[in-house]
Amino acid sequence: MKKRGRTYTISAVADQYSLHPQTLRLYEREGLLKPSRSEGNTRLYTDTDLERLEVILSLTRDLGVNLAGVEIILNMREKMDAMQREFERFFQYLQTHAEEFAQFTESPPPEEGALVPLKRSAALRRQSSGQRNS
Fold it and tell me: For residue 124, is it within any domain?
């Protein structure tokens, strides 16, 4: 069973942030906040919702951004977070495969004008002649 974090009702959140509950409902209608609902259909705000609300309030109160701008900024932040996670996965992949990549850089450079290094081409010729003789 999934452990449930702490949740807050709309009135508790409105009091804590000196907002009218209608403001929170507006943020929900605009898609800026997405509180879960109880079985009785009461809005339940999580700590993650409150962190997002604090960003919204900072943008609107401190920086004067309108709600359309807030939506754009929040979407950009989500995309940047996704890109950061993707970069971290890629970096982790590079770290776990560093030895393989090092082998490519440690091989001697190909002979001037040769598509396949001469040492390798000789090995390929031996391998293919051995297959024909079988």
Answer: no
3-state secondary structure of 106: helix
- CA torsion 118-120-121-123 (nearest 10°) is 130
Residue 57 structural domain: 7-107
> Per residue in 48-85, pLDDT tens?
999 999 999 999 999 999 999 999 999 999 999 999 99
User: Do 50 and 8 meet the contact criterion of CB atoms below 8 Å apart?
Assistant: yes
Report the domain count for the chain: 1
84 inside domain: yes
CA 119 to chain centre: 45
Which residues are CB-contacts of 13 (< 8 A; sequence separation ≥ 6)? 19, 24, 45, 50, 53
Q: What is the CATH number of the domain that holds 81?
A: 1.10.1660.10
pTM: 0.65
